[in-house]
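[Meeting: bench + compute handoff]

Bench side (C.D.) handed over the final construct sequence. Compute side (W.E.) agreed to return the predicted structure before the next meeting so the bench team could plan truncations. Sequence as handed over:
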Amino acid sequence: MHKLLEIHNLHATVGDKEILKGIDLTIGPGEVHAVMGPNGAGKSTLSAVLTGRPGYEITEGSILYKGEDLLAKSPEERAWAGLFLSFQYPIEIPGVTITAFMKAAVNAKRKAHGLPELKTGDFLKLMKEKMAMVQMKPEFAKREVNVGFSGGEKKRNEIFQMALLDPTLSILDETDSGLDVDALKIVADGVNALRSPEKSAIIITHYHKLLEYVQPDVVHVLKDGRIVKTGGRELIDIIETQGFDQF
């Protein structure tokens, strides 16, 4: 069986600046990997390259996802194939309700897989089930996407989107930035509820707090565009007490 994600010697530039300088990373089904590193290490560039955000040039290396060339796929095709990105700063979409937004997203993914669109009743039933899973109040379904939401509400909404889209690989890009403990727990509880032997996650962070609630299987230290250390949970404790300078 293929590994879920295989990154080999990945180099990427933004403008004329090289940010990723030879990333090697392999993730198996059901694994949660934490990628930690100081600001400017290349963590968010890694998530951008994985999800196909424009403006990043791959100059060398490869990414296989489920055994296929991920770099050959458009951002939409990557999402339909099961990639999900949780943003550091989720955007507001005035005039679009959460229900309308998520129904369009779910049905686009179903269409890409040759499945019929969900009927409204079936979709609402599924949405209600996933909202309960992430402890989201039903009235949020009628609200505009992220408009007037607190930081914690935006995060809960993202975890709800993740639950509804049922991704194979979730990428949480500094999603814990600036969150209080209650909001952190919302994110952690959602990630933990969605863990399964088939589904994997990459948690990108420079804090250790979220990783107290979500137990990663593997921890990587990313510094100056390279993964300089890989290990278990003991790395989190070392980073917390001694910082990133030692690596």
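W.E. noted at the follow-up: The longest strand covers residues 17-27. C.D. will use this when planning the next construct.
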